[in-house]
Design brief:
The chain is elongated. Residues 1-8 have low confidence and may be disordered. By secondary structure, the chain is mainly α. It contains 3 helices and no strands. Helix 2 (43-67) packs across helix 3.
């Protein structure tokens, strides 16, 4: 039998998972942007970083709507700007 507190700890657990996802995405985004800035001299490496950046944008687009229903107090920043997400969404839509 569940206690009332179990329900709240479940919500807290979801909020903690959301925070972890956002922190991971922010860190990955920062690292890939910095790596891309320093890898301009090697086109092969730049290409790999650009592909990784696209992957992160797609992940962010998938995760954000799913976790917005989780009660959370904090910033809504995931790393990529709204403009980058919108541009990536437009690109994905045009590619289908």
């Amino acid at each position: 039998m569940k206690k009332k507190n179990d329900v709240w700890s479940g919500r807290d657990g979801l909020a903690a998972e959301r925070i972890a996802l956002q922190q991971w995405m922010k860190e990955e985004w920062l690292v890939i942007c910095q790596a891309l800035d320093t890898a301009v001299e090697d086109p092969a490496i730049s290409y790999q970083f650009i592909e990784r950046k696209k992957l992160l944008l797609r992940l962010c687009q998938k995760w954000q709507p799913s976790v917005q229903v989780i009660p959370y107090i904090g910033d809504d920043c995931w790393g990529p700007s709204k403009e980058e997400l919108l541009q990536a969404n437009t690109y994905e839509f045009e590619q289908v």
